[in-house]
Amino acid sequence: MVQIESPPAQLQAGSSSVDSGAITEDAIAPNGQPGDGPPLDPSELPAEGFSGSEGFANQAAGAAAPMDWQSDRTRRTRQIALVTTISVATLLVAAVAFGWFVMTYGSGPDVVVEGTPADASSPGEDAGDPIPDSGNSNTVPPDAMEPGPANGELPADSVAGSTIDAAPAAAADPDAAAAGQEPAGQDPGTQPSVAMSEPSNPTGAADSEPGGSSVAPLDSLIPDFAAVQGPEDDATKSSEDADVASLMDLPPGLAQYTPFLLQEGPTEKPTLKAPPTLEQAPLDDAAEDDLDPLAKVQPRKLNLKSDLALKLAFRSDQYPLTDMVLMISQITGVPIQIDWVSFDLVGRDVGQSIKPPKTAVSARQVLDQIAAQVDAEIREEETLLVLTIADEPFAARYEQIVNTDDMGNDAESAAGVLADFLKGSIPSAANTDAAVELGGDAIDAAADGEADDETAEVANAGGPVGAIVNQRQNQQLAALAAETLRRMRGIDPLVPDASMNRWIQVGPGQTTDWPKIQSGEAGEPVDTPIALAGFLKRTARRNDASCLVNWYDANRRRATPERLLLPDNHGGLAPMLIRSLEPMGLYVRQVDANHWWVGSDVTYDRLPLVVASPPLGKHREVFVDQISRIMSDAGGEDFRLVIDPISDRALMMLPRFVARQLPKVTQRLVAN
After folding, report:
1. Could you give the CA distance from residue 666 to residue 509 in angstroms, rounded to a whole number?
2. How far apart are CA 270 and CA 253, in angstroms?
3. In the chain, helix, strand, coil percent, each to 5?
4. Which is higher by pLDDT, 552 or 35?
5. Per the record, where are the segments of Polar residues compositional bias (predicted)?
6. Are the C-beta atoms of residues 181 and 226 closer than 8 Å to each other?
7. Helix (H) or strand (E) segment spanning residue 460
8. Domain that holds residue 474
9. How many CB atoms lie within 10 A of CB 597?
10. Closest CA to 567 of 610, 611, 523
11. Which of 105, 402, 569, 664 lies 20 to 30 Å from 213, alpha-carbon distance?
């Protein structure tokens, strides 16, 4: 069995069996026995007593504390101070070394080349004393050490001077030249050329340094021409002179510039005149889009089955076409765009009166009936409707306009100009002649979009020509160009000026700009909201005008037909229109006395316009270059330009902001 013993008695405070005095004597005794060794002097003990962490683990019990004893905190502080001192000293040494390196980097010993043999002596020597021979005969005069062209080539003036001066001296006394002496009659102060005479220092003495050592580090880099050149006759020297002279010959094309290279002093002003040039005319930039991209609104997609199902009843017998369209847009909320260019080409006025239905019919039936009265049709798009001339009547009128038979003997050249214009190219004279052979077929092919696969698409902002993306818009452009060409050549036009002046610019005094409304009748104040379309219809009719709205532009600015307004007529018509429409970025412009156009400045500045330049004459190339650079800087894709050889004028398609500043370009041409 395992015997379980009781644990030893624990030391307890206050126990009578514990002698604290004996324990103290055992702790301070040298050998752990009471009374052994001398007693510990109390003066050796620290006054503040022991904290228990002074590091006496390895000290024998009862021994005195060492004299170099230090606490852990003091030792750690001294170590940190030592490391800091060493680091600072190292950093200072490194900074001093780096500064010395920067000051001495790249600065080598200065090489001083003296100009005379007397200067080659050391400071302690007299200039007249003989110079000891260093044993190196490959020395040259100090003048030969002056900087010259790269790769050891001699300057032109040095070689030329040696041919004239040194050759006679060497020929007069060849023995003296071979012996290394100066020729008779030679000026001591004149240093002869290296290639034609002996060096003036034949002994090869080097510059003496103050320390007494004489070295010639540059002598070994100069070839010894004197050693190679022995006694030669006059014929040999003459052949060398001819060789040197041949090296200095320049090609005929560069010989004319020799006076400019050799002359000293300031260069004369050139007398040649620069070719005539024309700086680009400063033009005002087009208006920038102020619509925040994050604030753009995606126009509402139409649901025509429900939007145009509302039945309408009219009591009037006559109604202006534009007013009827705006009223239907106001009631249904469907934007209806009028294709103004097509109406003008076929001779239909957008403000003409139409008869509304006598019975209540749906809005779609009303649109179809009024469209039939003006040979038009309704075309559906995703976000709006377009009222345009039907294909059959438009095609008939188009064929009449683009037919160039009325131009007589110049009919074929006119067809070629129109074909090139529709392709969007800038042809040369050869290309123009080739295009003449195409005749009217080229016009039809270009208008049908088959002439050029790279025809650019132009942003359709509801403009007169619109984007070149389908056959109708190509045909509009062809018809406008044909009417412009007739006016350029003095042929009677087929479309009246009253209609064409909105879309083409021919004469220098023609005004094609559409200013913003400045005056008119504002009408009575209203105290109830009114829809945008109704407000424009009522205000235009009060001023005997037909109002056409660019709904492509208005849709993206939240200016829908049914949007409510509360106009303030204080101050007149112009302030009322600005306060009502300017927050949406729209403005009302007066096209003529009877027509208003509503849209943004951004859209208006970029509406295409077919323009004819004045006769160009000798300024043709400069004018074409000017217009090309202007349109290149403007980044316009609506740019087309061809030259009509009959009228010597340019046929162009330009944005309106460039067309209205075209006189700036032509005036500079006349001035130059």
Report:
1. 13
2. 18
3. 40, 10, 50
4. 552
5. 190-203
6. no
7. none
8. 398-429+464-509+613-671
9. 21
10. 523
11. 105
Enter the pTM of the model: 0.56
As given in the structure block, the two tokens for residue 442 are 């080229």
Element (H, E) at 398: helix 391-402
Distance CA 214, CA 208 (A): 5
Kindly give the pairing relationship between strand 504-505 and strand 353-354: unpaired
Closest alpha carbon to 383 in 337, 350, 449: 337
Strands 587-592 and 546-549: unpaired
Angle at 392 between CA 391 and CA 395, to 5 degrees: 80
Would residue 141 count as lying in a domain? no
Kindly report, residue by residue over 423-458, the tens digit of the pLDDT.
864 433 333 333 333 344 545 555 555 444 333 333
416 within domain boundaries: yes
Q: Which long-range contacts (CB under 8 A, 24 or more apart) does 260-264 make?
A: 262/156, 262/157
Burial bucket for residue 435 (CB in 10 Å: 0-12, 13-18, 19+):
buried
Q: How many domains does the chain have?
A: 1
**What is the DSSP code string of 179-232?**
TTPPPTT--TTPPPPTTTS--S-TT---PBPTTS-B--TTGGGS--HHHH----
Does some domain include residue 317?
Answer: no
At 388, which amino acid appears?
T
